[in-house]
Amino acid sequence: AGLYIIRFFIGMAGGSFVICQYWSTAMFAPDIAGAANGFVGGWGNLGGGVTQLVVGTGLLPAFLTLMSPDMAWRTVSLIPAGLGLITGIVVFFISDDSPCPGGRHCRSIVAASATMAEHEGSLYDSVRSAYTRSATYILFFHYMVSFGVKLTMLGSIAMYFVDVFGLNNSQASAVASIFGWMNIFARGGGGWASDKANAKKGIKGRIWVHALFLAIEGIFVIALPFATSFKGALSIMIFFSIFVQAAEGTTFGLVPYVDFKFPGAVSGFVSSGGNVGGLIFTSLFLVCTFEQVFITMGVCCWISVPLAIFIRVEQQSDIYEASEEENNGSSSKASTLGTSSSNGGENIIDEEDPTP
After folding, report:
1. Cα separations in angstroms, 10 against 13, 34, 50, 77, 277
2. How far is CA 312 from the centre of its chain?
3. What does the alpha-carbon distance between residue 203 and residue 313 come to, in Å, rounded to a whole number?
4. Rounded to 5 degrees, what are φ and ψ at 347?
């Protein structure tokens, strides 16, 4: 019972991911918000793999030489706990706690869209505002079939290589770790691609890149069980890992635009979609084979792609037609948040920042 309680509070601490995604949205200008959110989220996911590698493979054997196994795993767990405590103290005393403390951050989506007073509201206000938007639910489903699929693969890919290609557990774990190491660049790369598309086509560019990565992700996850050689399966797994994590990055390239006033509520709801998807897809292994589960996940990815057409955000309500301001070569506040930095002739960048 004690372990269940402790794991419950560890899970609550994991909610800091949502806070961090809001923070990166608030701190970075809209033209790089996708890359910022992507690298923050990707390196956060990478941290889980690094912790398992360093603590489980590196430190635990050393602790086992000094104490009993029952005491060793408890003691070694104090190391990541202590690092988490130190990080919290550093964040509290050193980091900026406002999107607009000294002027330079005023270019961020949060600061540009409303005053700080306008971002204030009750829990009910934020939930009602975020959860009554269709884009919130579409991106929730998209995160189910991106991050949720990734969670499922992380828990099953090692066993897949053991059962299908006869690898031992150590070899399969090493192969599966490649999947996690793609977090170094893949999720951030998806956010970067979203930013580049936004620079060319505005918010509709973000949406089309997002749909493309989801479609390619579906192709690779369906192709994986049909690979007849270990090299072929390994290659497909690597490319699948890149595109599934890139789709996560493009998802959070769109999340900040859904509700400018309460982006944190949207981020929290969309993030939960990943855990829901992981639970659903992992449960399928109770009644289905590897091939059946992989194909199911791929089909779900493809089903999610057409839903991108119906994503409506505050900046632009139709991804097919440019706004009147874009056609006239002018910029409104909405387009300011996507690709420009002006609003009715008034530059939203603080005067202390010389960047145009």
Report:
1. 5, 28, 18, 12, 20
2. 20
3. 9
4. -75, 130
State the pLDDT at residue 300.
Answer: 96
Q: What number of CA atoms fall less than 13 Å from residue 352's CA on the CB side? A: 8
Judge contact between 139 and 270, C-beta under 8 A: yes
Query: Please, what is the end-to-end C-alpha distance for the chain in angstroms?
Result: 58
Q: How far apart are CA 10 and CA 195, in angstroms?
A: 33
d(CA 233, CA 44) in angstroms, rounded, equals 27
Query: What residue type is assigned to position 351 of the chain?
Result: E
Its pTM stands at: 0.74
Is pLDDT at 172 greater than 90 in this prediction? no
Token match 């603590």: residue? 55
Q: 322 in the Ramachandran plot: left (φ > 0), alpha (ψ -120 to 50) or beta? A: beta
What is the Cα 129 distance to its own chain's centre? 22
Phi, psi of 345 (to 5 degrees): 85, -5
Task: Measure the CA–CA gap between 240 and 49, rounded to whole angstroms.
Answer: 18
Q: Which two tokens stand for residue 272?
A: 């939960």
Sign of CA dihedral 189, 190, 194, 200: positive
CA angle 311, 337, 143 (to 5 degrees): 35
Q: How confident is the prediction for the chain on average, in pLDDT? A: 79
Which tens digit of pLDDT belongs to each residue from 285-334?
A: 999 999 999 999 999 999 999 999 999 886 544 433 433 344 444 344 44
User: 3-class SS at 342?
Assistant: strand
3-state secondary structure string across 251-278: HHHHHHHCCCCCHHHHHHHHHHHHHHHH
Q: Who's near 84: CB < 8 A, 6+ residues apart?
A: 13
Q: Name which of 130, 238, 230 is nearest 182 in CA terms.
A: 238
Q: What is the pLDDT of residue 194?
A: 93
Write out the two tokens for 348: 């939203």
What does the alpha-carbon distance between residue 206 and residue 337 come to, in Å, rounded to a whole number? 13
